[in-house]
Amino acid sequence: MKRHVWKVIFIALILGMYLLAQKVSTNNDFENKSTALMKQQGLKIISALDQSPGCKGMYSLQSTSFKQDSFFSTTGKGRSFYTDNKNNILDVDWSAEIVDDGKMIFVKASDTASLQAKLTALLFTSCQAS
Predict the structure, then answer these.
(1) Which one, 9, 52, 58, 65, has least CB within 10 Å?
(2) Is 18 within the bounds of a domain?
(3) Are 54 and 128 in contact (CB under 8 A)?
């Protein structure tokens, strides 16, 4: 009887290790995909700024960071920092969410109204007063 109990415990440990490794892999995938989507959305922002003659080619991505809310969470937050040639900073906060059992990831600006106001101000001033 003791032998069967140890076999069950051993199988449960192996199954637990497998599930933990799978969750870590999923979390890494979430972080990588979210960061890639933040960079992709950031390129859209920069291309919108590049359409203004005074802003063309001024901003470039300096860094992007991402942190999942908790180990088992399906949401996370990120930030992208863009600088211009005068070292003025454009900071964009992002939120990311896994949906449909990890098949889709949504990334959007956390405060779209604030981001829109920043971009509008930059466009009106031709990126001179950033």
Answers:
(1) 9
(2) no
(3) yes
